[in-house]
Design a protein that fits this description.
By secondary structure, the protein is of the alpha+beta class. Helices cover 22% and strands 32% of the residues. The protein folds into two domains: 2-166, Quinohemoprotein amine dehydrogenase alpha subunit, domain 2 (Lipocalin, Beta Barrel), CATH 2.40.128; 170-371, no CATH class. Helix 3 (225-247) packs across helix 5 (333-340).
Amino acid sequence: MHRLTSVHQVIVFLAIGLLHLEAYGFISSQDSRSNNAKGEDSQNEMEQNDLFVGGDWYGKLGQPDFKIKSFDYELHLEQSGKIITGYSIIRVPGTSFIGQMRLEGYLKGDNQIDIQEKEITIDKHGFDWWWCLKSGTLSYFSVTDSLAGNWTASGCTPGIISLKRKEILKISTFTDNVPYFVTGYWQPTTTNRYLELERTIDRLRTKECKSITLRDIPGGYAQFCPIIDSKFDEICRQISLRAKRLLVKAKSDRTLLHVLIVGYVDPLNMTPCIYSGESVLTTKVITPDQETLSGSLVVTGSNLSGVEGNIKLSHLRSYYVFKEIEERMQSDKYYSAMKKDKRLEIKYCGGGIIPGEYKGEPLKRKFTIWIY
């Protein structure tokens, strides 16, 4: 974007697409209070910090004085409190020219963010121009869930950025390098459930499920609980924000809030293992990624041994992730309002076994959630 003599300005053009947010750790554990049982204090905290810009933003950046008039531009942001980190991507449409920049930023007032690109991490440019590091203030527009504003850069003419957050949010724990469930068990290993898990698993290992263990990972599972808590905090925060955005629309707008949860298991089959929880029925779903998954009925006393039992376990994990989210969202007024208004649709289903050799496979005990 730097030319040897001149540089940028921008074209305003909104890009719309599918938000594919792959398990970034957006929410610090401190933010959990906004979604668990803290009553009015948690609601007040959420009201004071409603602007959440974490996610993937797509749109245009242009420069009419340059020979290339328009660039594709992306922001991939993580947010913890008022602090923003992440990276930007800029491309010349229809070419292989691309730049990626590490960035930092912060919330500014009620509806603005300041961002500054700090370092070019991918640099592929033309022979007579190069990318520059940009900074600017972008305003958030809640009705369209978009960001727009001006930017400047040293040696470059200023311009305008216009971006839109993609409408379907996918949070996948696959990229987290953390097992979300213990071997052969169905409830996620959160901090609140850890002591309960220790007692339950000790009992099950002497009776129904000898294969269940908390000790198949060096250092044990307790080390992962804060990370798992943080991911659930992130999910609940995103559900609340999506609910709020839908509620502020016109009363005639009856758009539903959809939440879809898919549970997974590793290839290590249980032998033997008997399910001791409540009966669970999951239904057939088609994910936003166009994958069709079949439902299943898992009754109390079901045999979870072998391949078929392992697949049943993936359905149980989707259901118990749903229960964890439902419990955490009880005090959220936006979620409750959508539920009361019959505009909330939550589905859960098993995604089955993630294939591969067992070595290192505890990391495949995961779930994926879509919010749209």
